[in-house]
Write a structure and sequence with these properties.
With 122 residues, the chain is an alpha+beta fold. The protein contains 2 helices and 3 strands; from the N terminus they run H-H-E-E-E. It has one domain: Pantoate--beta-alanine Ligase, Chain: A,domain 2.
């Protein structure tokens, strides 16, 4: 009886052709998730800092907040659709930033409120 010799030299190539796309896909997914989380945290930070800058503003608080937001929201890693709402009165400033990513269907709302009477005037 003759035994059939099977050459297994090509099996590594087939296994690599199946595994490598999965590894690359998971790596790209982790990078996208990291960029998404970074941008959400950065948007929250810009919202809070704009509120603080507006509360220290002597003249127009709304213009100061919108100027700070316009200058800093362009530094994000991904494209986001953002809407900015700023309201101020004699006592407080409130900044609301609504942002939605292009591949994620949810809109994230970041709110910050600062009271002007807690800010020392130098």
């Amino acid at each position: 009886m003759k035994y059939c010799r099977v050459n297994k030299r090509g099996s590594f190539t087939v296994e690599a052709a199946l595994i490598i796309p999965i590894i690359l896909g998971v790596t790209v997914l982790f990078i996208y998730i990291a960029m998404f989380c970074h941008d959400r945290c950065y948007t929250e930070y810009v919202c809070q800092m704009a509120c603080i800058k507006a509360s220290y503003s002597e003249t127009d608080a709304e213009a100061a907040a919108k100027e700070y937001i316009d200058d800093n929201l362009s530094k994000r890693l991904m494209n986001w659709d953002t809407d900015v709402y700023v309201s101020s009165d004699d006592e407080s400033v409130e900044v609301i930033v609504e942002a939605s990513a292009m591949f994620f269907p949810k809109t994230f709302t970041h709110k910050a409120k600062a009271y002007k009477h807690f800010c020392p005037k130098y």
